[in-house]
Design brief:
It is a single chain. By secondary structure, the protein is of the alpha/beta class. Helices cover 54% and strands 12% of the residues. It has 14 helices and eight strands. A six-stranded parallel sheet has the order 1-8-5-4-2-3, with helices on both faces. Strands 6-7 form a two-stranded antiparallel ribbon. The termini are far apart.
């Protein structure tokens, strides 16, 4: 089995980049279809087109349907082919970016990713998480390549809602622990290869940056200020976590997050908030030492991430639906089986309740 690390062709992060799009997009195409939400278009269109109009670059803005699902991917693929577009650009959060990556794969066109929030590790990966139209998890779509370009405007991230930056830290929080589990078990990473030393180093550095700069970055985004701490956390959330999870591998935390999509009470919670709680569950499964659990709990409290059912709004979820979520998580092929020991529905359910108990206190 080979070792493999996969990453975007280019990752560019800095201030004011949305107003300087043309030199970054032009090497990849001359006619770009932008996928963006109506609210995102209202906020960012003037900046996005300023350099494109000056250069005579062709573009179209297409509204996103709100779900990364097979139907939306087919719709956009048809639109791209009929319109003669030669570059696909995603502007927004995780589901828009995952959709664009899948459309790029289905059409064979290059993909540029412009995240407007640092709320997930989706931008850099060669992976799209597909959902059904009702928001429940469908499947992973593994892609043969990462995006050609990931362009992160730190001014935009600094003006996004602070809780979305916290959600990105919740998603990034699992990166080290899942990569460590994969390393211990000898499982494959998300590109069906063995993790490289570089991938584990990225995952480890991601965790270090979160602990060192997370609270200060939250203060920066609350005051809409780009600071060195915020720059570090943006890179951790988007690049280090994105390359780290894909090339380092996933285990229990992201598997359980998929199971939690079965609980309607959690549908309003972000991906990263659910991953943060699921990371605590993984540590309980692993019987992690008390100091490690305390470090993670302290971090979650410092940046406003959930640590128990109450924080998730799930106190009223009946036991049988937690059992259904555990059963879904433990299906064959789910990444929870990348842990270096067997996991059953019963042991997972016990860990879920144990994490809730610890998080309450």
């Amino acid at each position: 089995m080979p070792y493999c690390l996969r990453s975007p062709n280019q990752y560019i992060q800095g201030s004011g980049l949305l107003r300087e799009l043309y030199p970054h997009l032009s090497p990849f195409g001359s006619r770009a279809l932008f996928l963006i939400s109506p609210s995102g278009q209202k906020r960012h269109q003037a900046d996005l087109v300023s350099s494109l109009d000056a250069a005579g670059f062709s573009y179209r803005f297409e509204p996103f349907s709100s779900e990364c699902c097979a139907e939306e991917i087919r719709r956009l693929g048809t639109l791209v082919r009929s319109g003669g577009w030669n570059l696909i650009v995603g502007v927004g959060g995780g589901k828009i970016l995952d959709t664009v990556k899948a459309v790029g794969h289905s059409t064979g066109l290059p993909v540029a990713i412009l995240p407007t929030v640092a709320s997930t590790d989706a931008p850099c990966s060669a992976l799209s998480v597909l959902y059904h139209r009702d928001g429940t998890f469908d499947r992973y779509l593994f892609l043969p390549r990462s995006p050609e370009l990931v362009l992160v405007d730190t001014d935009v991230i600094a003006h996004a809602p602070a809780h979305l930056l916290a959600a990105g830290m919740g998603d990034a929080l699992s990166t080290y622990f899942e990569a460590r589990a994969v390393r211990r078990s000898g499982a494959d990473n998300q590109v069906s290869a063995k993790p490289t030393e570089a991938a584990f180093a990225l995952a480890s550095r991601c965790y270090e940056l979160l602990l060192e700069y997370g609270p200060d970055a939250m203060q920066a985004v609350q005051s809409h200020t780009v600071t060195p701490a915020l720059e570090h956390i943006i890179e951790a959330n988007i690049y280090l976590s994105g390359v780290g999870f894909e090339s380092g591998g996933l285990a229990a935390a992201h598997a359980l997050q998929k199971g939690l999509t079965l609980l309607p009470e959690l549908h309003e919670k972000t991906h990263g908030e659910k991953v943060a709680f699921s990371t605590l569950v993984q540590l309980c499964l692993e019987q992690a030492p008390a100091y490690e659990l305390q470090t993670v709990l302290d971090f979650c409290h410092a940046v406003g991430l959930p640590t128990c059912f109450r924080d998730l709004g799930a106190e009223a979820v009946p036991a049988e639906r937690w059992e259904n979520a555990a059963a879904f998580t433990c299906r064959p092929g789910m990444t929870i089986h990348h842990l270096p020991f067997p996991v059953t529905e019963e042991t997972l359910l016990a860990a879920i309740y144990r994490a809730n108990e610890i998080g309450q206190h």
